[in-house]
Amino acid sequence: MALVHKHLIIRAEVNQPPVDPEFIETWLRDVVSAINMKICKGPIAHYVDMPGNRGVTGIVIIETSHIAIHVWDETNPGLMQLDVYTCGPFDPQVIFDMIEEFDPVQVEYTYLDREKGLIDITASFA
Question: CATH number for the domain including 74?
Fold first, then answer.
């Protein structure tokens, strides 16, 4: 496998923000499987109950890097930040399809090639 160093960063406002850490751990396992990666450690998730920063956060270490999610559920719509970094090839559309279950109302993203710098390749995916 050739290393490719791709980094997908998503900011999504969602009507149905996940709030259950166990659900997020399962969801992260499903994401790893859907993009054909291998788990090294985790996933782990925790609900943070601090006013102004309330929500679930989770991470999974994959063989080729990591996937992290942070959700703030105090706002309406909720805010989800998702970070998928891998040195292995994957189809970003799989990730967009998977966040559909949270009923996104607005999705912004950046797709970077980090192999020889921080090259924005968002347009190549759109």
Answer: 3.60.90.10
